Each structure stands twice: as C-alpha cells, then as structure tokens.
Fold each of these.
Amino acid sequence: MHLDARTLQEQMTAFVRAFGLHEPEQTPCGQPMSASEAHALSEIARHAPTSQKALGERLRLEKSTVSRLVARLEERTWVRRDPHPGDGRSALLALTPEGRQAADRLEAARTEKFRELFAAIPDDERVAVLHALTTLTRALDEAALPETTQSPARSVNPMETDAMGDSARAGEIGLWPIGSIANDVTEVKPMRDAGRRS
C-alpha cells in the first residue's frame, strides 16, 4: 500500500462510513440521536451536575455550539438546568428521568456494539488497533495546537490499560477519539483552543 496523506484520508473516510459516523440522526450503535447529542448526553450523565462551560471543554466544542446542543437536549426533555449555588448568573446541567433512561439505553447499545466490534478483531491485532487509535488521537491533538505550544506527546502503550481484558472498555477507547470526527461530519464546530481543554 502506498502511504501518504491521500491514503490516510481514504482510510479515514472508509472508517467513518463503515462505522456510521456520517449518519446525522443516528449513532453508530443505532440510537435515535446525533453523535454530538450522544456525546453530550453521556458526559452529562457521568459528571452531573455540570456547567455548560465544563461540558464544552470536555467535548472540545465552542460556546455557541454547546448552547445549541444543550438546547436540543432540553427540547427532547433529556436535560434540565438547575440554579448554580455559587453563581446566580449560571446554571448546572443535569439529566431528567427521561434523559437518564436515554443515557442508559445509549450506554447499553454502545457496549454491545463495541463488544461485537472487539470480537471481530483478530486476537493478535487488537493491541495494534488500539495503539493506532492512540497514535491517531495524539496526532489530531498535536495538529490542533499552535506551533509555539506544541510539545512531544507521551507515547501511550495500550497494554498500560486494562482494555485488553475488557472488551467493553476497549471499545470505549476507540469511541471518543473517533467521535470527534463525527462532530466534523455532522457539522459541529470543534474548539481549537487547546488551553480550554480538560
């Protein structure tokens, strides 16, 4: 195989389409929501109560994009805004009972999807796949940084995690980095300010 930027682009495009990341109204695991809504729902489920600013930092999205995203989740009655006890001008995001049910369905479907995908990868290629995802994520992060702030990133060895013993966890490693590609596909504007990342 000839290796160059065009080859990378073609392989990434093939992956996005095969995995279903280009579907605007459905997640790769078949849930009826966009990829950006799924990411936001999961983050709020993990970290509630959380501020909209913190959500944007975790998702690497700009303020205006997060505002629209939260508004869509509110329209679906999945998220509510509670008063911030320390800041009268701010609110904290939390899931409604309907939102918790949606988040639980999403987590169950996602776990099953990645169990199936993990099982389909030959045993002797799993470490290489996880290492490739780690390398790709690091490259994306480095490319997003201004040249003056770039620094060598630590090489992450997939064997340092417990992923190889837990197929669901291994799937999670693959989901979130590639999920940022879905944001581009669904026309969500990524935040490029590295200083605001968590």
Note: The chain is about 55% helix and 10% strand.
Amino acid sequence: MPAISGDIRQHWVAAASSLYAMNWVRAFDLGPTKLLGHTWSLAIEEQFYLIWPVVLLALLSKRIDPVKVICALILAVVSWRLILWRGGATQFRLYCGSDTRADVLLIGCLIASAPKVAERLARFYPLAVAFLLLVALRRWKGEIRQRSHVWRRNCGRITGLNRSAFGAYSLDDQTRPVD
C-alpha cells in the first residue's frame, strides 16, 4: 500500500475535525493533530449530543427509570475502559475515544435527571477530590522514590497538606449529613 503524502493527511485531518471526528483521529493516531488536535473534546460532546437524545426518548417512551439505566451505562463504560486498558490500548485510545469518555457526560446526565442524587453527590465532592489527590500523590511519590531526597521531602509535605485539608473537611459541621 503506498504511503499517503503529508499534505493529503493534513486535509483529511481537517475534514475529520470539521465532521467532529477528531477524537477518533487522536485515539487511533490516524494523522497529524498539531493544529486541530484540541477539537477532540468537542467531537466527543457532539457525538454524545447526537446519541443521547435518542437514548433518552427511548427510555422515557418505555417508562424505564433513567437513573438506573444511566448508572448501568456508567458502569459499562468504566468496565469497557478497564478491558481496553488491560488489553494494552494506548493512552490516546483510552482518553480520546467516545466509548471510553462517555461516563463523564453520563455523570452529568445522572445529576440532571436525579436532583436528590445531585444533592447527595455534592456533599461528597470535596471528599472525593481530596481522596483522588491523595491517591495521585501517593502514586507520584512511589514513582519518584528513586530520585533525589529533595523530591521525596517535598512530596511528603504536599501529602501532609492534603491530609490536613482532608481532616479539616471532615470536621466541618456543614458537610455532615443531616440525621
């Protein structure tokens, strides 16, 4: 198969961007994405906006509880992403594919479709952020363990600050659930 010249590939990438398919170009490394690579997230949103109304109408017409279906879809997307990751998919495939990023948009749909769920989730948001920061810093600290002692000392300080913020959050009376 003859190689495709760089000029044709750039035009093809421009067409993919204008058709909101740049996320797939990035996911499968189908062309140069320097100039239009940033449109991948717009592509995911547009693809979602094409599919979601159809799914929502189908759910509402069959009188199926959207919250349960959305939760199931979120679990399915996360499971699919884990399967791809375990199968050796590239970072771009995992990050830029609509099928692997739909959970983020579905969480927004879940919050919009269940206001009481949104109120409950909002209470745990700062806690979840603190937890994820702690996990990320622990992992980062483990990766740089073999580097200089200055890096390790600074990571310990940052982790300590994160723990302090977590402790202050847990002592705040306003964030505790009402009995």
Note: Helices lie at 6-18, 22-27, 40-61, 66-86, 91-96, 98-113, 115-143, 149-171.
Amino acid sequence: MTPDRQESFTPLGMTPGRRRAPCVVLVAEDHDDTRMAERIVLEAFGFVVKEARTGLDALAIAQASRPRVVLLDLVLPEIDGPQLARMLRADPTTRDAALLAISASVNPDAREEALNAGCDAFVAKPVPPLVLVRMVRRHVRHDHPSTLVGL
C-alpha cells in the first residue's frame, strides 16, 4: 500500500473522515463458539466487540457501553431476545442502538416477533462472515435508519 493509500484507509468499524473511536457492537449470544466467531470477524474489521452470554448480562453491558449495534440471539437465558429488544428500546441509554436479530429459526413467526419487538433486521443462522459485517456496517453507516431489512 502506498503512503497516499494508507492515509485514506479506514477500518470498516470506523467512520471515514472522522477521528472517532471505533464502533462498539454488543454480541448477545449464549453459544460460546458462535459468539467467539462473531467477535473474531467483527474485530478483524475494526469493530470493538462486547460480549454477553445471557439476556440479563446483555442488558447490563448495553447500558454501560452504549453500543451502536446489538447482535441479538432470539433465544437467550434469563431474558429472551424479543423481551430484551423491548427493554433496550424502552431505555433512553440504549434506545438508539440498531438491534439486529439473529436466529437459528427460519420460522416466519420468529422474524415477525423480532421485528415487532423493535429489532431493525432479522437474519437466519448461520450468518456468513461477510454478510455479518455488511449487515452491521449498513446500520452503522445509516446511523440507525429504523428500517426493517432482512437478509
């Protein structure tokens, strides 16, 4: 990479042309392997990743770290994904985060429940790494457009 190209390079988790901290993404997922894989992919693209194994942990971490994006498994211990989405939307410190539901269920009712609970998008597992990055990036770039997008 030439020096000129280096100056224009911006990691995907950063906002081009601005000197800001990388975007914080919360991964709320109870399966350790899935959570770790999502963290590795997102960190490789410049995002700062916080992790939660339960819905209750996700709520506390979201309130403390105020992520721009929350990747939300619909089936979590303690507080399930749709209930967590409603709680995040009701809280002034977290209501503006983009909530992206991720589920192994391809049942149309699961998608509808997630979107009705306040999620901005729904995608079925497994999520290919670049699709995950594209989905997160789309919601960061548009500063939470509140559009119901499915991939």
Note: The chain has a mean pLDDT of 84.
Amino acid sequence: MDKWRSIPVNALYIKIIYALLALAPLSIQSKGQSYAVIGQSLSRDSSAYQYMERKKSEDRYISQSINGVPYKPERLSIAFDSCIAFDPFRVSKLHFLNGLDDSKAHLNELTFSRMNFTSLLLSEVAHVDKMFFQICSIEKANVYNVVNPLTLQFVQTNFKDFSISHSKFNMLSIQHCATDTFTCKKSMIDTVTIRDEVFANHVEFSQMTVKLIDIKDLKAYQDGGQYTLSFKASKFNEGGVIDFGEGARKITIDYCIIGGHFYLENLPGTVEFINNLDIANVIDLRNAVRGNKVCHINLRGSSLSNLQIDYDHFKLYFDSTATYSDTISVYERLLEELKTERYKPDVNYMKFDVDFKKIGYIHEGRTILGFMDNVWWYYGYRKYYIFYWTVVFLVCFFILNTIVWNNLTSTYVIGYSTKRPKFYRNRFYLKQWVRFLLDVMIYTILIFFSLKIDFNKLSLKRRGYVLIFLVEYAMGLGCLFFIVNFIFRS
C-alpha cells in the first residue's frame, strides 16, 4: 500500500472508488493506455483516476461538525466518460462509506457517457439514487434485483437486448433510444417514460406494478418495419398515456388492472384487449384511431362497462383460440352496453348486431337464410326495403303474366280479359298493345294484393299455371303483411 500513499488524490476519493469497483471487473482505456481494476487494487498508476470525471455541480465529500456534533457528508456524483468496459461489466452490491464512522452512504448519481458495453449487468444496486446512461451502445443489458428504488435513465443509447426483472424504480426513463427487444418483468415502477422517437422491435411489460405510464413517439426499429407492444398481468395504479406513434403492428393488453385515467392514442391495426376485468374509469377509444383506418380489436374476456368504441373505426375479431361461446359472449355484453344512455343516439348497436347475426347464421350453417334476411330487410333494421321488393315483384310478375297471359286468365278469370295481340307495325295494333299491357298490370295488381281467393273462379285443369297464380298471391300476402307492420311500427 506504500504506492497508494504517494498518489496525489484525496484519500476519501480512493475509499469511494475502492467501494464502487470492489466487485466489478472494469477496464478503462483512454489515449492508448489501459487500466484494470480487480478487487481493491489498481494494475497501473493513479492516472486512471483522471478519467473518472465528477460533475461540476456535485457537493464536496467532506466531514464537518456543527457545534461539536459530527455531520454526515453530502452525496456525491461520479461519472465515467469515454471509457471502455471489459465484458461483462457488472455493477452490483455497491457500498459507499461516509468518511466519519464507516456507515453506508448514498451516491447521488452514477453516470456513464459515450461508452460501449457488450454485456451490462445491474443487480442489487441499493445505495445509488440515480443511474444515467448517455450516448452509449449496449449489446445486452440485464437489470435485476434492484432492491431500493432507483431512477434509471437512458438517453441516446442503443440496445440489442434489454431486460429488467425483480426490481424497484422511482423512474424508468428511455428517450431517444433504439432497442431490438425490451422486456420488463415482475418489477415495481412509479413512473415509466418512453418517448421522443424511441425505436423498437418488441416492447413487453409483464407482471408489473406501475403508478404512472407515459409512452409516446414509438417507432419501428428498422425502416419499413413494425413493432409490437404488450402489457401482460400488470397493474396501472394511476393510468397514463400511451401514444403508439408510427409503425405499430400489434398491441396486447392482457390480464391488466387499470386504475386512474388511461388514454390510448394512435392505435395500430390490431389490438388485443383481453381478460381485463378491473377498469376503474371509462377508456374512450372513439378518437383513438386517426383518419380512416380500421382497428381490429379483440375484447375476449374483458369488462366492457368502461370501454367506449365506435363501429366506424373498430371491428371485432377473435383469435384462433376463441370458441363460439367466447364470441357470442363478447357480442352480447357489447350490445347490452350499447343500449345504455351514454351511447344514444348511436348507430353502433345496429352495426355490431348485424355482425352478431351474421356470425350466428354461419355457425348454424344457415347461410341461405342469412342471405335472405340480409337482402329482404337488412336483418330487420331497414324495413323500408319492403317497398322496393314490392315494386320488384310486381314488375317480375307483370313480365311473367304478359308471357303466359292467355293460359293464366283461363286458369283464374277476373271479369273479362283481352287476348294478347299479335305484333304488327301499325297504329291500330299499337293501341291494342297499350290496352293489353294495361289489362295485364291491373290483373297482376289484383292478384298480388288480394286478401282472399274465389275458388269458384279457379280452374285446376292446368296445374302449372295454378302454381304461378298461387305463388303470386302468396308473395303479395307476404308483402302486405310487412307493409302493414312497417306502417304501424313507424
């Protein structure tokens, strides 16, 4: 230790550096020279300390007394700038001595700037208030077992793989960064901030407890790519804002408890909002999709009482694991919610109900009946279609009756009937055709809108024409029934 006594550095600083790097193999390289700290010894001379830059605003680490009573030293900030770390670089179990009674003290801020890490391990960091990484490159970062609340901040830092687990944070802040994969599991965080053009491939929060979340301006990690974002089995105590920005392909919110006011903006094309039963306040998604985009949303197993969506921007969809009972359960609960006062007047009920009926017809194998229900009166929502169909049937039967006129009038006689004239090009026969077509129209209308048949006038000799007559009569009765129903229910 004689060598160290000659070093012109405050002995208290040496004490701090020993404690900081006691368990962390580190290589510090600058101007072509390399210095390694292993255990509590330095392999070279004191010039290594020149590259551990302290922030100008830090408080001096001194011992003082007030009226003879020992005074604990102020907190420190230590910065590593433009250094290169051995692999792996580990920061764990940090102990700092206060210089008076060798009790543990806190480091105010530990900063790493312009450094490259192949593997960064942060664990059991109990005596640091804030760790700050700026303009760094980290191939793989693993943060776990951070027992005391820590502020962890990354700015302009690139990651390949970033994972956090079993930790506590006052704040987790990621800004102007890029990460291929980010996972955060089984941790408690007061505030999560991910914003200002953070590029990602996949971001996942699992089994988390978050007080407030603020995510904005996420973008795809690669040009032309898309990212995914998922929250699973997590709790949001005071809600927050998630703006999915550009390039989102799919988001998943699964088995989460959502407290406070929760805002979702710029939703992507696919949203899995499933198994979320505890939602404290209304989540209004009606303005969460911009432009004319359509978002396919899966609501299986979620509470819908505090969720507002609109049909113009959302379509329900179900993944391959959903059963038919899951599907009808979502539709039935959604339709019940759409009947409440907060949705009236609203066309969403009709549109979702139509989809529900289509699914029912397909599941039961009654596609033809479903087609008829659709074209006849749009599943009961467009009863005025009956007037269109009445005109269509009258025109069709008029054309048919013109063709089979002579045989049809001999099957069922109404007063007198003219014979169908022949085709001649003169004024006399033109008048005959006009009179004939008028008679056919009257005859068709009388049959179509008749309430009863005089069987004394019905001849059964030609059964084919009898069938034509009965079909026209039955179709007319059906149209009359729907017309009367429409009038009295309007």
Note: The chain has nine helices and 34 strands.
